[in-house]
Amino acid sequence: MIDLQPIFQAVRQAAALCRRVQEMHLLGGEKAGREPVTVADYGAQALICRAISQHFPGDAVIAEEQGGQFVELVSDREKAEITRLLSDLLGESITAASIVRWLDHGYGYEAERTWVIDPIDGTRGFLALRNYAIGVGLLVDHQPVGAVIGAPGYPTPDRRGVIFHAQSGAAYVQPLAGGMVRRIRASERTEPAALRLVESVEKSSASHERMERVRLAAGFGGAALDRLDSMEKYARIAAGDADLYLRLPRLFSTRPHMIWDHAAGVALVQAAGGIATDVDGSRLDFSHGRTLAHNRGMIVSNGRIHQRVLDAVAKVLAEESRN
Questions:
Q1: Active-site annotation holder among 38, 123, 229, 243
Q2: Can 123 be counted among the known catalytic residues?
Q3: Is 215 contained in some domain?
Q4: Residue tagged active-site, from 41, 104, 229, 261
Q5: 41 is a catalytic site residue
Q6: Which of 98, 129, 160 is the last residue of a domain?
């Protein structure tokens, strides 16, 4: 069994860095551009890739950011801020060259194990001080088998955030700051009035209108619905705090699904006893590099209602094909 402790530590460090960036740029109420996301994205990924390079040096990495982008696209002011934040957090002098090396670790490797990293999933949620996640998925032979997901905004009583992980076919949660680890499982709810549904906030990510038609076709029109940023939606299914996450793209969309948005979440849901499939019930295929090249969308559920949702999606797609 792989020791995930170095990844836990890196995700906690990344969450601390993200909080610091929000305090510096966002909590004053002034309108912010993309700079806070840039700083948090590269800083968080550098921390996670640093841990992988130290503890799992032979593993491959697929991640949203790369060293070349850091060199070419990040301003000198942003580079200086990222370097300063990492130096303060790690208690050592960090250089831009070190950051580039960490960001590129594992890139292009061929290995049995691949870490899939989304350093800030839900960038609009991060900027708006809503929900966002720090996601690290683990693929073994292209199958999602492990995950560590930091969820700083998860709705717990103390609002201090939690960290989820999946390993050896089981799913767990603990406070982000450390503490008691608790096993989690998907819910057993099936009655429409008791169901809790989640979907993306942003209309650019998925078609709200199409998903409403599916809910109505499944008989879930009266179920509670929350719109959330990030892969926290997967975590809520795994924890039993929600029962269905449906992602149907806009009709005729050719926008690809990036694997870093889904690998960690799929591993977590499956370990908790839920189900994650394409809209036709086929598996999500993580064997094509950075994208889920052959998948049209996602149905993620507690498992008990999955077939009912598949039938509803099939009905809606058939109606669309006739129009």
A1: 123
A2: yes
A3: yes
A4: 41
A5: yes
A6: 129
